[in-house]
Amino acid sequence: MNEFIAFIGEHIDKIYVLILSIFVGVEVIGKVPSVLHTPLMSGANAIHGVVVVGSIIVMLNTESDQILLLSLGFVAVILGTLNVVGGFVVTDRMLEMFKKKDKK
User: Fold this and answer.
1) Nearest-CA neighbor of 91 among 32, 33, 30, 40?
2) Spatial distance between the Cα atoms of 28 and 68, rounded to a whole number of angstroms
3) 35, 46, 51, 91: which has the fewest Cβ within 10 Å?
4) Could you tell me which of 56, 25, 54 has the C-alpha nearest to residue 41?
5) Would you list the domain boundaries of the chain?
């Protein structure tokens, strides 16, 4: 327990920034109209490519006997990839809505 309190004491400034960024993020997203929410989210999901690359780099630098870290890295790669693909699928569906329909 003392280690946890010491950790909090050493990183209190980072914790404050994290909490404030959560509040700012909620306020910014809350002000976005629902019409724009889906395109913004589909673009933001594509940013998870950074998560995929980062988790691959961490997995490459992890020793082979650390099964927990390798498992978490694998799960991060899978979930990040699903999020990236889902973002592009949503974007593609939205772009299909704006294409002109052929009259037959």
Assistant:
1) 40
2) 36
3) 35
4) 25
5) 1-31, 34-104
Tokens representing 85 are 């693909």
Tell me the residue length of the chain. Answer: 104
Query: In a 3-state reduction of DSSP, which class is residue 101?
Result: coil
- CA-nearest of 87, 6, 9, 96 to 46 is 87
Question: Using one digit for the tens of pLDDT, what is the confidence trace for 12-54?
Answer: 999 999 999 999 988 887 887 766 766 666 667 767 788 888 8
Residue type, 78: I
pTM of the model: 0.57
